[in-house]
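Annual report, structural modelling task.

Input specification for the orotidine-5'-monophosphate complex:
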Amino acid sequence: MTAGSAAVVSFGERLERVFASRGQLCVGIDPHSWLLREWNLPDTAAGAESFGRAVVAAAAGRVGLVKPQVAFYERFGSAGFVALERVLADARAAGLLVIGDAKRGDLGTSVEAYAQAWLSPGSPLEVDALTLAAYMGVGSLDSPLTLAAANGKGVFLLAATSNPEAAHIQQAIVADGPQAGSSVARAVLDEVGQRNARAGAASARVPTGLGSIGVVLGATLDLAAFGIDVQHVSGEFRTPVLAPGFGHQGGNIMDLISIYGGYAGGVIVSESRSVLSAGPHRIEEAIERRVAEVGAVRG
Ligand SMILES: O=C(O)c1cc(=O)[nH]c(=O)n1[C@@H]1O[C@H](COP(=O)(O)O)[C@@H](O)[C@H]1O
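The model returned the following structure:
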């Protein structure tokens, strides 16, 4: 299913608008068991639903983006997905951009079905952008990328992730083909950048906007170790970056510019546990404090 024939506003354009109106902070919605306990909620689908809807209510009007972690709903089976659908419906109604963190990856018609589930208008699991894993090749994701573009949706491909176990794979060197000699992470980033540039060239927008295909670059990393040069980033349809790893994992918002350089203007600063652990009575204050910190760094 795709959006109607009316001109579809791209995800990149919607992201730019949200950055301008609400800033670059994204609040994660990760109902860990221990967080549900701290929020005096049951460790059930109903508890995760109450948690998610409360976080959406606190985020609305304060930030522009939320990022529900699908796994923490999936652990309750179908009841968990019903709960997630209700959280997503609240977030959409609140006008928040929703990044579904599902890290889906498959090939052919399988990954196409994932795209239908998450990136189709009217789907009960509809989100504005979805995290994807390109372990089977960026090209294996052509159908989600095509469907996303048709529906004004975005995707974020894992490139250099924030976890320490990833480096030896993501820094491995591509053996042949157009990205021979690049790290795996750099190869994903470059291919995404080329796709954004092509989409940008074909669109009527001025070539300085944000593309709709993003990457995940963790805030805990030295991106140079992945062969990623953040100082020389071309302006045409810059690749947006989903940046988890701030807060609980040790990433410091004050380092936003030094970590991401030319990408900084398109970075979604993602925090989950460090905000959510403020609890139900202080989460609004915690969000406002983080928004101010990001705003101060971005100037
Ligand atoms: O795709 C993600 O959001 C993601 C990518 C990554 O490299 N590292 C990472 O922590 N995440 C997600 O970000 C959330 C953790 O955020 P914190 O609780 O702020 O550390 C979890 O839902 C992770 O799955």
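Strands lie at 25-29, 65-68, 97-104, 129-132, 154-160, 213-217, 241-243, 267-271.
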